[in-house]
Amino acid sequence: MENDELNEIIKAAEQGSADAQCHLGVLYGHGESLSQSDENAVKWLSQAAEQGHARAQANLGLHYRRGLGITQNDRKAVRWYTKAAEQGDGLGQSNLGLMYKNGWGVLQSDKLAAKWYTLSAEQGHATAQFNLGLMYGHGEGVTHNDNIAVKWFIAASVQGIAEAQYYLGFMYDNGMGILKNYVWAYMWYNLAIYNGSSSGIKYKEKITQEMTPTQITKAQEMYAECLQSGYKNVSMIASFDMGMSAAQSTDYLMALSVWVPLAEQGYASAQYNLGHIYARGYGIPADNKSAMQWYTKAAKLGYVEAQVELGNIYNNGQDVTKDHETAMYWYTKAADAGDAYAQFNLGLMHQHATGVPQCHKTAAEWFSLAAKQGLADAQFYLGVLFANGGGVQEDCLRAYMWCSLADFNGDSKAAEYKDKIANKMTSSQIEKAHEMANHCLKSGYTDC
Questions:
Q1: How does residue 4 score in pLDDT terms, banded at 50, 70 and 90?
Q2: What is the pLDDT of residues 305-323, one digit of tens each?
């Protein structure tokens, strides 16, 4: 700080400015631009606090709590924390919560601790967010709720609180309040260790034994990226995962509270899942208009599942006027991105002349793409085309092969149709078709 600026602060403090007095007290306490002096810090903080300056009151409470520049006194610490907290000061609220949690200077009360932590956490105070996460995780002063615990651990973790990062890793590690994921657990344990927490060391070593080399490499890459670019992306992903965990436990209102802010920030996965909640009325009245809005937002961002969903809605006229052209548009987007269901549905549209001229050849091309991804319905339809020479050269061996694969993958119609084809085949042809099916399956559908 420049001397002129410092002199202005001193002058204003001496003239009675509470802001300047608080600022000067903090400078003395931290030894910034002035020789460190807790006594002088207390002097100036006291003057500001007596004028009702909330942050000065919170800092003065801290000096009383720690006995810095003044005789240690928890009751006086509580007095000043309370004054600050009641004015809405986040630091005062967080520290008052700590006093109630531990019974320092007041009767111990988890309920009051949770109250003050909550008020502070909602203002973004990282320590309060972490402590509130612990209270929800342990069910102290609040109803136990791992999803809410994770919510606050995420908020504190992205502000660099090492112990919160460790706990978030632990929650990922054990699938508590968030989807179980060793890669994310490893990354958060690593970040906790980097930021000074030793708690994550043994747990990181433990899950390393459960992870593949590829998973470990991925976790290390995510860790390095997080250090370089900050926590924003990992925060959104972690919040989304927590919402998924809440939805899986049918706490849809919790999922909504997490996903709506993410969706409004353009997070496509959250937009798609919001569409599901509104479409199906999970935990709330069904709202097809809102469902369509969120599906469309996600689809426009390239989210394939949303594109397929929109294709289905327009193709079947689910609460909208049937519009095969629009269905074709969204199916094609998803199919071009490699989605097997979209490819199959495009095959059906060309096969049955739904919104497009009938073309068995184009249908076969789409069925083939989906079939080679293991989609049983597409394998069956492709088998039927080979049996009848629709869009492809008639080939009983390939017809039998694809129907066998469809049957293997669970298509209910394939077994009967396969037997129908077999009636026109010799035993050697059937044996050959079985060999082709086995070879195709072993190749992962790359050589069929």
A1: confident
A2: 999 999 999 999 888 999 9
Joined together, the tokens standing for residue 288 give 């097809």
Is residue 2 scored above 90 in pLDDT? no
Could you tell me the residue range of the domain that residue 381 belongs to?
366-442
For residue 242, give Cα distances in angstroms to 235, 270, 425.
11, 11, 55
Lookup result for tokens 């050697």: 428
Calpha distance 208→189 (Å, rounded): 11
The structure tokens 């967010």 sit at 129
Q: What is the mean pLDDT of residues 376-403?
A: 95
Alpha-carbon dihedral 424, 429, 431, 435, rounded to 10 degrees? -120
Mean pLDDT, residues 382-392: 93
The answer to whether the CB of 166 falls within 8 A of the CB of 200 is: yes
Residue 376 belongs to some domain of the structure: yes
Q: For the chain, first and last CA: distance in Å?
A: 74
Distance CA 372, CA 69 (A): 75
**How many Å apart are CA 70 and CA 252, to the nearest integer?**
51
Q: Which two tokens stand for residue 336?
A: 């071009």
pLDDT of residue 230: 85
Q: Which residues contact 269 (CB under 8 A, 6 or more apart)?
A: 240, 262, 298, 303
Average pLDDT of every residue of the chain: 95
CB atoms within 10 A of CB 231: 17
Identify whether 384 is part of a domain. yes
Residue 427 in any domain: the answer is yes
Q: How far apart are CA 169 and CA 200, in angstroms?
A: 8
242 belongs to a structural domain = no
DSSP-assigned states of every residue in 336-352: HTT-HHHHHHHHHHHHT
**C-alpha span between 203 and 68 (Å, rounded):** 37
